[in-house]
Amino acid sequence: MNQWDTYQWKFPHGEHPCVIISPQARASNPAIETVNILGCSTQRAARAAREHEIMLDKADGMDWETLARCDVIFLAPKKELMKHRGSVSVERRRALGAKIIRLFGFWVG
């Protein structure tokens, strides 16, 4: 299991794709049972991404253009992550990380 991998997870509101955003040391450590994830939509995106979202697609392991929500981080048990879908592309990793930094006010300067 790696940072930026995409899987399926059963969120409280239903089963959806997700992106692991935990650091690699946590994601790959079998002694740690949970990872931080972002939730994605299950339906094909019919609009542009809003300020708190980023668009993912087949290059990121999605079935089609999919909106990923960057303003809510979930903690998921690794054993509940199903159907490894792929991994977020390098270009979108940068965009996704930058968006999280801006949304949560982690940027100091």
- Give the number of domains: 1
- DSSP strand count: 7
The helix content is 10-25%
CATH architecture: Roll
What is the strand content?
25-35%
Strand order of the largest sheet: 6-3-2-1-7
SSE topology string: EEHEEEEEH
State the shape: globular
The unreliable regions are: none
Instruction: Measure the end-to-end span.
Output: 34 Å
Work out the helix count.
2
Q: Can you characterise this structure?
A:
- This protein is an alpha+beta fold.
- The chain has one domain: SH3 type barrels, CATH 2.30.30.110.
- It is built from two helices and seven strands, in the order E-E-H-E-E-E-E-E-H.
- It has helices spanning 24-27, 90-103, and strands at 5-11, 14-20, 34-39, 53-56, 66-69, 74-77, 82-87.
- Strands 6-3-2-1-7 form a five-stranded antiparallel beta sheet, with no helix packed on it.
- A hairpin with a 2-residue loop joins strand 1 (5-11) and strand 2 (14-20).
- The radius of gyration is 13 Å and the shape is globular.
- The mean pLDDT is 95.
Write the layout of secondary structure elements.
Blueprint: E1 5-11, E2 14-20, H1 24-27, E3 34-39, E4 53-56, E5 66-69, E6 74-77, E7 82-87, H2 90-103
Antiparallel strand pairs: 1-2, 1-7, 2-3, 3-6, 4-5
Summarize this structure as a short list of keywords or feature phrases.
globular; 17% helix; 35% strand; SH3 type barrels; alpha+beta; five-stranded antiparallel β-sheet
What's the gist of this structure?
The chain is of the alpha+beta class and 109 residues long.
